[in-house]
């Protein structure tokens, strides 16, 4: 939860940035945190850090942009509220000076870096009465959210009705059960280790959802093998079992998480990795269909762009000598914001370039004019990636990562099937 800061607390945290849960995290077990609107951070794992620093040029468009390293501390305010604060590494602001932190300030978070120096926001005038009232409201809200989260995290697939007031994207906060689960686990781990260690390195990465008003996110675990070369026998056996019992062994890809906005009902649909593991190949195909369907019609205009990007990625990976992306994920992201509908009997100028009518039978005499839809395809999570160029690895692989490429090709084929079947 995010604590409310009083005047003394603002001074105490005035050299850091309060980190919050990244509410669009739909998979993975590592905690992803929001640094600002365009940047996220996650615990630094040496192998993943090495990957980003030695990334082949041709792969950079298919991975998040790497933006540096920060030091993160677990801290408590005077009321015992837990929080994570990011500080420049070793007091050096150089790797952060170009980051825009202007969005980091709220009435409970009054700090930012400006010209390499931490300053209080001049436009914030907070009375002691406001501070204590805000604390009371935050505690009541937090208690309610804790109860709701306990219910949410028990569900593998759930629908959450978005409130009609306010911007749709603002309603995501606090209601993605997977991100809240990861955030709570990270706080607990750091709390347990606080006596022995309270300085952790986190890497800063591009927030891939920042350009979308209502991000729809699909997290796919790629490859026929998930365990790294350094895995223990127990871990290896566990990962092999998960692959054999899911679509990973059959088609080299499985659903690890999903977040979709349903325009028809005004709901958010979440699917977690436990449900994804249970899917058959047909179930996997149906889940993909569901990801591209907004509850009113299938987003057909997205297919060609997704297929093109996946095909390009496949071509790039086929040329990567020695890389193995064990346990890596692939994200597909698009904007769930509903497109503007135009009446069929409107002025002819309004109907230029109309695509085919919505598949929603209730659309009646309406057709839609697609907005400029953009789809992003990115690889993430490289904690178990290996390559002969790393030098210290005991196992050296040759050629392409055939398991990952196999999964990509099957993913492309299934999306093509959905596209072709929906146009019949």
UniProtKB/TrEMBL annotation:
| Sorted UniProt keywords | ATP-binding, Kinase, Nucleotide-binding, Transferase
Top-level taxon of origin: Eukaryota
Q: Which GO terms describe its cellular component?
A: cytoplasm; nucleus
Q: State the EC number(s).
A: 2.7.-.-
EC category = transferase
Which Pfam families did the record assign? IPK (PF03770)
The GO terms describing molecular function are: ATP binding; inositol hexakisphosphate kinase activity
For this protein, the record's Gene3D superfamilies field holds:
Inositol polyphosphate kinase (3.30.470.160)
GO term, biological process aspect, one: inositol phosphate biosynthetic process
Q: Which family does it belong to?
A: Belongs to the inositol phosphokinase (IPK) family.
Write down what this protein is called.
Kinase
Q: Which organism is it from?
A: Helopsaltes ochotensis
What phylogenetic lineage does the species belong to? Eukaryota, Metazoa, Chordata, Craniata, Vertebrata
């Amino acid at each position: 939860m995010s604590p409310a800061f009083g005047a003394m607390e603002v001074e105490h945290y005035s050299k850091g940035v309060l980190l919050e849960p990244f509410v669009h995290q739909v998979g993975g077990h590592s905690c992803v945190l929001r640094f600002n609107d365009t940047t996220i951070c996650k615990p630094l794992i040496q192998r993943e850090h090495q990957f980003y620093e030695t990334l082949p040029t041709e792969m950079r468009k298919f991975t998040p942009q790497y933006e540096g390293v920060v030091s993160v501390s677990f801290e408590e305010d005077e009321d015992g509220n837990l929080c994570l604060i990011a500080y420049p590494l070793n007091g050096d602001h150089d790797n952060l000076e170009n980051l825009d932190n202007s969005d980091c300030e709220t009435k409970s978070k009054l700090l930012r870096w400006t010209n390499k120096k931490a300053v209080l926001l001049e436009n914030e005038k907070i009375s002691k009465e406001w501070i204590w009232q805000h604390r009371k409201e935050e505690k009541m809200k937090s208690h309610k959210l804790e109860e709701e989260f306990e219910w949410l995290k028990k569900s593998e697939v759930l629908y959450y009705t978005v409130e009609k007031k306010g911007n749709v994207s603002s309603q995501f906060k606090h209601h993605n059960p997977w991100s809240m689960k990861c955030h709570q686990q990270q706080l607990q781990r750091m709390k347990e280790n606080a006596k022995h260690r309270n300085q952790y390195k986190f890497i800063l990465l591009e927030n891939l959802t920042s350009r979308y008003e209502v991000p729809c996110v699909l997290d796919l675990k790629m490859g026929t093998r998930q365990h790294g070369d350094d895995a223990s026998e127990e871990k290896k056996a566990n990962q092999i079992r998960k692959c054999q019992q899911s679509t990973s062994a059959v088609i080299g890809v499985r659903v690890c998480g999903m977040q979709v906005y349903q325009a028809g009902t005004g709901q958010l649909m979440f699917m977690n990795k436990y449900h994804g593991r249970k899917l058959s190949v047909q179930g996997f195909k149906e889940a993909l269909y569901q990801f591209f369907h907004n509850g009113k019609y299938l987003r057909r205009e997205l297919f060609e762009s997704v297929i093109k990007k996946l095909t390009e990625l496949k071509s790039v990976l086929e040329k990567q000598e020695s890389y193995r992306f064990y346990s890596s994920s692939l994200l597909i992201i698009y904007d769930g914001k509903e497109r503007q509908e135009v009446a069929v009997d409107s002025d002819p100028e309004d109907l230029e370039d109309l695509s085919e009518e919505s598949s929603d039978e209730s659309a009646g005499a309406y057709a839609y004019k697609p907005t400029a839809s953009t789809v992003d395809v990115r690889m993430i999570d490289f904690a178990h990636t290996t390559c002969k160029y790393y030098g210290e690895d005991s196992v050296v692989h040759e050629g392409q990562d055939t398991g990952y490429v196999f999964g990509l090709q099957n993913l492309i084929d299934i999306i093509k099937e959905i596209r072709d079947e929906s146009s019949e």
